[in-house]
Design goal:
14-stranded mixed sheet; 26 strands; PAPs-like; Purple Acid Phosphatase, chain A, domain 2; 8 helices; Purple_acid_Pase-like_N; 4-stranded antiparallel sheet; 499 residues; alpha+beta
Length: 499
């Protein structure tokens, strides 16, 4: 007698569940990556995300997705008020539409395919930049898919222009893994902690595979209304790049074409086309935020182009506070494999560090190392006095690396000893500890706070700058013990996480 196991076509989820049951029943140890949802595009708008422009006091950009049947999409915007039908006065604008091929693509090199997206149909991404807005003002906006298919109204506030106004922003290191299962908790906890933040910096490796539409689905859906109301300053990391498989089976490592389809970021005319929307600046009152593409380290010409642009942009910047964010750390804290140079990137350090020190960049916010690290380069007077970290010293630049996802690495045994000739001191570390950061600008200070995912303070310091541009770093006196793999809870490999 023949027995039919399955009488109907089975979903991949059911097949995996069956295989897992059989393997466990036979006493086999099986590691199956957890499944995640992957909603298909429809005529309704989804994956809506707001991003800043060069001038966020009078404009912001929005990008969203539909299926490829929607060839003409719209956005509406109106200044927020107390009326029940504020929408009556909304202005309507036609969006720019981009056909995004998920499985097969075309760039300036040739045709290629993304194996992660085999079988997925083309989708349309639509984008709008709302311009000529009033500063420090709430606006209501919505976007459309097919005729009559509008998103709910969203509310967003433009940046202030008053140089004396205090404001804060969020900063996250790598999410990358567990972007469906773990990352949303950290993002939402941070937003709850600082609901009035003006923007959020995501310092690269948002996903693990830059070409995977499913992983981008997880990342973009993790925030939902947060992404729609809190402008995202996005940094391209090495995992936003991916292998593009060409028709001749050759592979090219390049920025995923999904990056520029999904996001509308400031353009930088002075830079080559390969760096557009990955190296840019956005201006807030008394604060300029410069974004660099450190994964361009594979092309020394692109590194030098960014260094030259950064030098000129810092030279003309009149902001009191200058912040640089990039993915790869100037000073690496992790050696993978253990006791190896691992994560160190000397080409990046050679290209950017002299520019940062020349212009006394205040804060460098980074990712990549999957650990927490904070250090600084002091003035010559402090270097001559002591090499021991102190709670208060004169500094040129402070460097921070953090991780927001559950994939974490150990700090290398040498710490930053090999960088001693640069005058840099590693002053605080953290292992096995995802964090989020709230950074606040006041009239005279930049206040930095790092929190664990349960909302506990982990690190805190204040930068105070006098009229001559000299900075004092003051570290909070009562910080918890440094967290390491030895004094924290169990850690399990990230390989079975729900991406």
């Amino acid at each position: 007698m023949k027995v039919r196991l399955f009488s109907q076509p089975l979903s991949m989820a059911l097949i995996l569940t069956f295989l897992l049951y059989v393997s466990v029943a036979n006493g086999e140890a099986v590691s199956v990556k957890a499944l995640t949802p992957h909603p298909v595009a429809t005529q309704w708008p989804d994956r809506i995300i707001a991003t800043p422009t060069v001038s966020p006091a009078d404009s912001f950009s929005v990008t969203w997705r539909t299926d490829n049947s929607v060839n003409r999409a719209y956005g509406e915007i109106v200044q927020a008020d107390s009326d029940a039908r504020y929408d009556i006065n909304a202005a309507q604008f036609v969006a720019k539409t981009n056909n995004a091929s998920l499985a097969k693509g075309v760039n300036n090199q040739e045709h290629f395919r993304y194996q992660a997206n085999e079988g997925l149909p083309n989708v349309h991404y639509h984008s709008l930049t709302f311009k000529d807005l009033e500063a420090d003002t709430y606006y209501n906006y919505r976007v459309a898919g097919a005729t009559g298919m509008w998103s709910p109204w969203q509310q967003i506030k433009t940046a202030p222009i008053d140089t004396n106004q205090d404001f804060s922003f969020l900063y996250f290191g790598d999410a990358q893994n567990g972007i469906y299962s773990h990352w949303p908790l950290v993002l939402r906890r941070a937003w709850q902690h600082a609901p009035n933040a003006k923007f959020a910096i995501y310092a690269g490796d948002l996903v693990n595979e830059g070409a995977s539409d499913q992983q981008w689905s997880n990342w973009l859906n993790a925030g939902q209304f947060i992404h729609r109301t809190l402008p995202a300053v996005l940094v391209a990391g090495n995992h936003e790049y991916d292998w593009q498989v060409h028709e001749n089976a050759q592979k090219t490592w390049a920025l995923s074409t999904l990056w520029q389809s999904q996001f509308t970021l400031p353009l930088t005319p002075a830079l080559p086309s390969a760096l557009q929307e990955t190296a840019y600046v956005t201006h807030y009152p008394e604060m300029d935020v410069f974004v660099l593409d450190s994964e361009a380290r594979g092309d020394i010409n692109l590194l030098h182009a960014q260094a030259q642009w950064l030098d000129q942009a810092l030279q003309t910047s009149t902001a009191k506070w200058r912040i640089v964010t990039m993915h790869h750390p100037i000073f690496s804290s992790c050696g993978i494999p253990l006791n190896s140079p691992g994560q160190d990137e000397p080409e990046i350090r050679a290209a950017f560090l002299p520019i940062m020190l020349k212009h006394k960049v205040d804060l460098v916010l980074q990712g990549h190392d999957h650990a927490y690290a904070r250090g600084s380069i002091g003035t010559q007077n402090d270097i001559n006095k002591t090499a021991i970290p102190s709670s208060k010293k004169q500094v040129k630049t402070v460097f921070v690396t953090s991780v927001a996802g559950p994939k974490t690495y150990p700090i290398k045994p040498t710490r930053w000893d090999e960088y001693r000739d640069y005058g840099v001191t590693l002053e605080r570390i953290g292992e096995n500890t995802p964090t989020y950061q709230i950074i606040s600008k006041t009239t005279d200070n930049l206040i930095y706070q790092s929190f664990t995912s349960d909302g506990q303070i982990y690190d805190e310091f204040t930068l105070r700058k006098n009229t001559h541009g000299n900075k004092t770093l003051s570290v909070a006196k009562k910080l918890p013990p440094q967290r390491t793999f030895k004094n924290t809870g169990l850690y399990k490999s990230h390989h079975d996480l729900a991406e």
